[in-house]
Structures are given as structure tokens and as C-alpha cells.
Write a structure and sequence with these properties.
Elements lengths: L9 E3 L3 H12 L4 E2 L8 H11 L6 H20 L4 E5 L5 H9 L5 E6 L2 H14 L4 E2 L2 E3 L17 E5 L9 H15 L4 E7 L4 H8 L5 H17 L8 E8 L4 E8 L3 E5 L2 E5 L4 E8 L3 H9 L3 E8 L5 E8 L8
Parallel strand pairs: 1-6, 2-13, 3-4, 3-7, 4-5, 4-6, 7-8
Antiparallel strand pairs: 8-15, 9-10, 10-13, 11-12, 14-15
Helix pairs in contact: 2-8, 3-4
Bound molecules: N,N,N-trimethyl-histidine (AVJ).
Length: 329
């Protein structure tokens, strides 16, 4: 996979047909929905980076402060010569901090659905970390793929899953996803995961309704992407970004609300929208530490350490394989 000048990712991306099928499937439900993983085309990945530098979007800086305050202990727990795997690495900025502190990491497997960005960042990492084998993998990480084998031997696998992306999964898929990670890790591996915590709803509201409307643009880009890729005719101006915290379900929901009655054409399908009807595009679940711990335990993992910031807005958690005796179902 490695050539002199470029690193070509293994590609397990969902194809166009799969994307179209999922879009049609979602738009035919009584509550219309679209999968949030499709936000991240080139433009979406860019917009997400802009969200991450917004004052209102507290997640990146809160998580970074937790990482900085506790990196010594984390690195101690993780140990030397690991195979590090990141699910949804994006621009790979976060993992650099970890790579800078780990003891002689053997290899890094960045996994992302956005191929262009993945190629660029894998290249940059390989030239900045000369002893690190970089093995990029382009995939929807909820599907199955094989973790590539590094040339050098490694002590254990460590999955890094920052940013509370776990929050995008509904409770049952979240549990299944953690179970899958446990399978990838094996008995010796560990998971370092960012988990967003429950907090004042006004903070959540402004984080997902930023004053510069970058989140709105990010949400609307999903329709623009569908227009671009399938020659579809969504009238972008007639949809509005709407985000709310649903306290009963413990999640922020993002929607795109049709401002008028309209029909959209996609392939041979005609999709009708009533005025005020919404497409549900994303959920972002918020957990209490004990709720997350509960879910982890039923997935074959055990929370070994939890680090939070002083305001307890966010947590970084270190999970290992649960010994079978303590695992409850
Ligand atoms: C990357 C999934 C963690 O849910 O907070 C940011 C995505 N959506 N603003 C989140 C997102 C709206 C983000 N995650």
C-alpha cells in the first residue's frame, strides 16, 4: 500500500448505490430521516472543521483540555509500542497530541469516510512521524473492514474514538458498536473514547445553533450533496436548520424543516413534503458517566478511568476488555 510518494488508503467506502438506497429508504419513512455519516463529503468535512473552531461548540476545546491535563496518566495506561486505530479521524489534529506523547507507537490506522482528506492527512502524518507506519483505511466505520497488519510487532491495539462521535448512535446500535470494538481489541486492547455529558440545555442549544450559522450550513450541505451526486432537485432555500435538545431521549436532534409544501425528485422517486415537515438528520446523545458505564459493561468492556473537566461538560474514558465473570447481559 505504501509507495515512495503517496499512501493509498484501503477503500471500503459505501458505493453510490448504497448511498442512494439509504437516502431513499430514509426519505420514505413516516418521520423522514437521513444518515448523519453522509454529512462528511469534502465540503462537509470542511464545514465540520469550522464548527470545531466555534466558540459555542464546546466539545473540541473541552476535550483537548482534558487530554492535556491527563496525558501522562493516559500514556502510562496505554503503554509502549501500540497499534493505534482512530475511528473517524477527520483532519487528524487530535491524534497528533496523543502520538506526540505515546512511547514508540508502532503504527497508526486512521479510518475515515472522507477520502480526499484522509489521503492528505495520512501523507502528512507519515512525513511528520517517520518511525510510525501509517495505514489509512477509507470506510464507513460502522460497516465491517479488516484492520491492516503493521510490519513491526506491537504490544496491543488501542482504539481512539474522540469527539463524542459515539453520541451519533442510537442506544442499541451504540451498544453493538462498542461490542464490535471490543472484538477488534481482543483481551489485551483498550479504547480511549470521548463521551459528551449531560449539561444545561441552553449550552447545548447554542452549541448546535451557532450564531454564525455554520452548523446550519453543515446540516443543509447534506441536501446540497444529494443534489450534486444524484442530480436531485432539493430547493435548499426552502429548508431550515432546526436543532433541539430532547430531554426525554437524552439527545440533541438536528432536523431540516421544509418551509412549504413541495415535491422533490430523486431518481424515479417523487418525495412529498408537507409545510413544516422535517428530515431528521442527526442525533447527538449525551450521557451521565454511570449511564455510559452501564452500556459499556453490556458490550464486553469495562470503564477503567474517567477524566472530566472542572465543569463536567465532557469526559474522556479509558475502557478495557471486561473479564468474562463480571460481564452481565
Ligand atoms: C462529530 C458527531 C460529535 O454530534 O456534536 C456538530 C457532529 N453536529 N455539530 C456532534 C456535529 C452538529 C458532532 N459529532
Amino acid at each position: 500500500m505504501k509507495t515512495r510518494n503517496s499512501i493509498i488508503p484501503h477503500d471500503y467506502r459505501p458505493g453510490r448505490e448504497r448511498f442512494l438506497a439509504e437516502v431513499l429508504d430514509g426519505l420514505r419513512k413516516p418521520q423522514k430521516e437521513l444518515p448523519s455519516k453522509y454529512f462528511y463529503d469534502e465540503r462537509g468535512a470542511d464545514l465540520f472543521e469550522r464548527i470545531c473552531s466555534l466558540e459555542e461548540y464546546y466539545i473540541p476545546r473541552t476535550e483537548a483540555s482534558i487530554m492535556q491535563a491527563n496525558i501522562a496518566v493516559m500514556v502510562e495506561l496505554i503503554g509502549p509500542r501500540v497499534l493505534l486505530i482512530e475511528y473517524g479521524c477527520g483532519d487528524c489534529k487530535k491524534v497528533r497530541f496523543l502520538l506526540d506523547h505515546l512511547h514508540d507507537p508502532v503504527a497508526f490506522v486512521p479510518i475515515d469516510i472522507s477520502r480526499g482528506q484522509l489521503e492528505r492527512v495520512a501523507q502528512e502524518l507519515a512525513s511528520d512521524y517517520t518511525t510510525l507506519e501509517v495505514l489509512p483505511l477509507c470506510a464507513d466505520y460502522t460497516s465491517s473492514f479488516e484492520v491492516p497488519h503493521p510490519e513491526r510487532g506491537f504490544s496491543r491495539k488501542v482504539v481512539y474514538f474522540p469527539g463524542s462521535t459515539i453520541g451519533n448512535f442510537d442506544p442499541i446500535p451504540a451498544r453493538q458498536f462498542l461490542e464490535r470494538i471490543a472484538g477488534v481489541l481482543g483481551p489485551e486492547g483498550a479504547l480511549l473514547i470521548g463521551v459528551d455529558l449531560k449539561k444545561d440545555v441552553t449550552l447545548l442549544h447554542s452549541a448546535y445553533n451557532d450564531s454564525q450559522c455554520v452548523t446550519a450550513a453543515f446540516n443543509l450541505n447534506l441536501l446540497e450533496r444529494i443534489n450534486r451526486e444524484f442530480n436531485c432537485d432539493f430547493q435548499i432555500d426552502s429548508f431550515r436548520h432546526y436543532a433541539l435538545y430532547n430531554p426525554k431521549e437524552n439527545r440533541v436532534e438536528m432536523h431540516l424543516v421544509s418551509q412549504r409544501q413541495q415535491t422533490v425528485h430523486l431518481g424515479n422517486a417523487a418525495i412529498h413534503f408537507a409545510r413544516g415537515e422535517s428530515i431528521w438528520t442527526e442525533s447527538s446523545y449525551k450521557y451521565n458517566p454511570d449511564e455510559f458505564q452501564q452500556m459499556a459493561v453490556t458490550s464486553g468492556l469495562r470503564v477503567e478511568r474517567v477524566w472530566t473537566d472542572a465543569r463536567e461538560w465532557f469526559s474522556v474514558q479509558y475502557l478495557v476488555a471486561a473479564d468474562e465473570l463480571t460481564q452481565t447481559r
